[in-house]
Amino acid sequence: MSGTVYHEYRTCGDETCQCMSGGTKPGPYAYRAYRDGDTVRREYLGKAESE
Ligand SMILES: [Zn+2]
Fold it and tell me: Where is the DUF6788 domain (predicted)?
């Protein structure tokens, strides 16, 4: 299956955490985006090595 792998920083979801208010976000995490018909789907690949 083909697709484009990309890295993304995500917020952790804790509203009291600094990453939710513009601070440093944890990551990067690797994702793969691929087309499934007319839909672009995203697959989570896990924590990226580093960037
Ligand atoms: Zn956080």
Answer: 3-49
Instruction: Give per-residue burial for 27-43: e unless 16+ CB within 10 Å, then b.
Output: bbbbbeeeeeeeeeeee
* pTM more than 0.85: no
Distance (angstroms) between ligand 1 centre and the Cα of 5 equals: 23
Neighbours of ion ligand 1 (CB under 5 A): 12, 17, 19
- What are the backbone angles phi and psi of residue 35, rounded to the nearest 5°? -85, 135
Distance of CA 28 from the midpoint of ligand 1 (Å): 13
Question: Looking at the predicted structure, is the pLDDT value of residue 8 above 70?
Answer: yes
